[in-house]
Amino acid sequence: MQVKLLAEGGSMKPGPALSQKLGPAGINIGEVIAKINEATSNFKGMKVPVELEINTTTKKFEITIFSPPISELLKKELGITKGSDAQNQVKVANASIEQIIKVAKTKLQNLLCKDLKSAVKTVVGSCVSLGILVENKNAKEIEQEIDEGKYDEQINGEITETPEEKKKELSSYFSKLKAEQDKKLKVAQAAKEAEDAKKTVTPVEDVKKVEEKPTKKK
Predict the structure, then answer these.
(1) 60 pairs with which residues across the strands?
(2) Torsions phi, psi for 54 (to 5 deg)
(3) By the 8 A CB rule, do 134 and 100 touch?
(4) Tens-of-pLDDT digits for all 218 residues of the chain?
(5) Does the N-terminal or the C-terminal CB of the chain have fewer CB atoms within 10 Å?
(6) What is the pTM of this model?
(7) Longest dimension (CA), the chain
(8) Helix (H, G, I), strand (E, B) or coil at 137
(9) C-alpha torsion sign, points 12, 13, 14, 16
């Protein structure tokens, strides 16, 4: 019997879905959860794919832990809670190529990629959908630069530590970009509120018509 789960790393709790699957088989749910939490303790704050292989006769089970989805790994690495709802207009983070390589190495064994370079490009592809910049650039531009070999030295060297000077530069660039984004969003919100206000106000001409409308005599 095989059961697939998406567990909260290191903090999975009992729930009806798990009870319905394991209860009838006579499996100790508390023991299963304890072992899953122990095995996923390094992925706290992330959703982790888990597979349980259960022998319903002996009541023994084996746990297989897979690395979290790329999106979860990226959010954890960059310290963000969610991606952008408007990827083309609003960016939520600015990653270094070293951070991308780090995520790619973590996920490599679960990806259908021939090598680390392909895995790095796959991770950059996820940055596109999440609204994450890479090296101060749109992720699509980075994909092309990877093909051109611009980051071969870092990828081949499996460099995962971002130099402090680069961290400061990336942070400074994103702070300025975020300030500009916030300003544009406020302007857009104010314009929307003004437009909505116009729709709710009754024109003076219409008020006069109502006031001047003769009343019917009984």
Answers:
(1) 55
(2) -115, 130
(3) yes
(4) 888 888 888 888 888 878 888 888 788 888 889 998 998 887 888 888 889 898 888 888 888 888 888 999 999 999 999 999 988 889 999 999 999 999 999 888 888 888 999 999 999 999 999 999 999 999 999 999 999 999 999 999 999 999 999 999 999 999 999 999 999 888 888 888 888 887 776 555 555 555 555 555 55
(5) C
(6) 0.72
(7) 94
(8) strand
(9) negative
User: DSSP of 51-116, one letter per residue?
Assistant: EEEEETTTTEEEEEE-PPPHHHHHHHHHT-SS--SSTTT---EEE-HHHHHHHHHHHGGGS--SSH
Distance linking the first and last C-alpha atoms of the chain: 82
Joined tokens for residue 153 = 């030295």
Task: Please answer whether residues 166 and 96 qualify as being in contact, where contact means their C-beta atoms are separated by less than 8 angstroms.
Answer: yes
Q: Which amino acid is at 29?
A: I
**What's the CA gap between 155 and 146, in Å, rounded?**
9
According to DSSP, the β-strands at 47-55 and 60-65 are: antiparallel
pLDDT at 213: 57
Measured in whole angstroms, how far is the alpha carbon of residue 107 from the centre of its chain?
15
Rounded alpha-carbon distances, angstroms, from residue 190 to 63, 68, 76, 94, 197: 53, 39, 33, 28, 10
* 52 contacts: CB under 8 Å, gap ≥ 6: 2, 3, 4, 5, 32, 61, 62, 63, 64
The pair phi, psi for residue 72, each rounded to 5°, is: -70, -40
